[in-house]
Automatic annotation (TrEMBL):
UniProt keyword terms in alphabetical order: Glycosyltransferase, Transferase
Protein name, per record: Glycosyltransferase
Species whose genome carries this gene: Artemisia annua (Sweet wormwood)
GO molecular function: UDP-glucosyltransferase activity
Taxonomic path: Eukaryota, Viridiplantae, Streptophyta, Embryophyta, Tracheophyta
Family from the record: Belongs to the UDP-glycosyltransferase family.
The keyword Glycosyltransferase appears for this protein: yes
Length: 471
């Protein structure tokens, strides 16, 4: 019997890579006859965490094959431009990807090519080889509604989004104000906007769309997608919800890890955890405001702090170096809060922390992976979006799904100490927080049920793979 292969092509960003790898694991676990190969672009920036992650997955899941594409010359201006990195590099790799897929086809039947949003350039390559081509949207069904509707927004407006002070009435989601749309979409004449628009159009022409969500979490969005309302002028590809796909937490010894050891000594549901993703950094004035807000809230806290960003826009968002806490936090803050809080530098084992009994709340940037981790752990959130599509996620999470409270922010994104203290108190002890906690408990139950035998995500996976395993 001829072997069958599914090729996954993620973006190098760790958040996208982890989700795609988890999809590969999910496919192979339930269909061992399908070989899973993941194409890896050697990113021209520091990806130490990626390398360590891939090494670990290779050791624990030898059935997943990582195929490294060769290193090529990258234009210098790409390094300082996030969008050129994400969309442009896969375009440079198209000839190599074409040859790679042809080579794979000589040894095995490629049943599907699954692209990340940012790997859109390879859509034309896969289609030219007449390969079934899917997109894995690493966000949820609500975000998918918005992006599939982007061509309609483009065709029914003449101004750039930045010049529109309006709410978009997008099928499947609450009204979204123009200011909450991703900033990369603000200028309709910009290169990023054109790349997102082209991707949205291609997604509408794919063999299928896969989302990292589950039935019962974003039900209105799911129904809308399946009714084809997000693409009013053409058919919508089949949509499959196969989540929550999240990386399992490291098996850490709670007596050795500083964060978990500290949490072991705290009362149940008493600690609010603050962590803002792999790219979430704040300037010194905002860090000091957070510290003051935590002190004002009177609540126990575990806070991950990174070094403030450089003023040089050509440098990475964060230096990655260890922050000097005494230089960036208010004088005496660490001493005054030593009995209530723990501040850790750069990194903490987020999945293990969220699943710890002492954690009762999560101040989050609304990244989708972090959101799913919190939902599975039944931890209510304070939504504090920073970049990308996170402001839209806040709308879904706070207004539609009701698993988060939105912190008050200024138009430029600044959060005062008073606003943070109020949100933390509301979340941990107020009536608003109680309602959000109850909703999280229900969504956690649904999330776990979706991934079990007979669950909705298992059923969706079998619908997705049916044609791959029967032909």
């Amino acid at each position: 019997m001829e072997s069958a292969t599914v090729v996954l092509y993620p973006s190098p960003g760790i958040g996208h890579l982890v989700s795609m790898v988890e999809l590969g694991k999910f496919i192979h676990t339930h269909h061992p006859s399908l070989s899973v190969t993941i194409l890896i672009i050697p990113a021209p920036y520091g990806t130490g965490s990626n390398d360590k992650y891939i090494t670990k997955v290779s050791a624990t899941h030898p059935s997943i094959t990582f195929h490294y594409l060769p290193t090529i010359s990258i234009p210098p201006d790409f390094i300082s431009d996030h969008i050129k990195l994400n969309f442009g590099i896969p375009e440079l790799y198209n000839p190599i990807v074409h040859n790679t897929l042809v080579s794979f086809s000589e040894k095995s039947t490629i049943k599907a090519v699954i692209l990340d949003f940012f790997s859109n350039a390879a859509f034309e390559v896969a289609k030219s080889l007449k390969l079934p081509t899917y997109y894995f949207y690493t966000g949820g069904a609500s975000g998918l509604c918005v992006f599939l509707h982007l061509p309609t927004i483009h065709n029914t407006t003449e101004k750039s989004i930045k010049d529109l002070n309006t709410y978009f009435d997008i099928p499947g989601v609450p009204p979204i104000h123009s200011s909450d749309m991703p900033k990369l979409l603000f200028d309709r004449n910009s290169n990023p906007y054109k790349m997102f628009l082209k991707t949205a159009i291609n997604m509408g022409q794919a063999s299928g769309l896969i989302a990292n969500s589950f039935v019962g979490f974003e039900q209105r969005a799911v129904n809308t997608l399946r009714d084809g309302k997000c693409i009013p002028d053409g058919p919508t590809p089949p949509v499959y919800l196969v989540g929550p796909l999240i990386a399992a937490g490291n098996q850490l010894d709670s007596s050795e890890n500083e964060c978990l050891k500290w949490l072991n000594s705290q009362p149940s549901k008493s600690v609010v955890f603050l962590c803002f993703g792999s790219l979430g950094v704040f300037k010194k004035d905002q860090l000091k405001e957070i510290a003051i807000g935590l002190e004002k809230s009177g609540k126990k806290f575990l806070w991950v702090v990174r070094d403030p960003p450089s003023d040089d826009k050509n440098k990475p968002n964060s230096s990655g170096k260890e922050p000097r806490l005494d230089d960036i936090l208010p004088e005496g803050f660490l001493a005054r809060t030593s009995d209530k809080g723990l501040v850790v530098k750069n990194w903490a084992p987020q999945p293990a922390i969220l699943s710890h009994d002492s954690v009762g709340g999560f101040v989050s940037h609304c990244g989708w992976n972090s959101t799913l981790e919190a939902v599975v752990a039944a931890v209510p959130m304070v939504a504090w979006p920073l970049y990308a599509e996170q402001s839209m996620n806040r709308v879904y999470l706070a207004k539609e799904i009701k698993v988060a409270l939105a912190v008050k922010m200024s138009p430029d994104g600044f959060v005062t100490s008073e606003a943070l203290a109020e949100s933390v108190r509301d979340l941990m002890e107020g009536d608003k927080g109680k309602a959000v906690r109850e909703q999280n408990l229900e969504m956690s139950r649904r999330a776990k049920a979706a991934m079990e035998d007979g669950g909705s995500s298992r059923a969706e996976l079998f619908k997705l793979t049916e044609s791959w395993t029967t032909m």
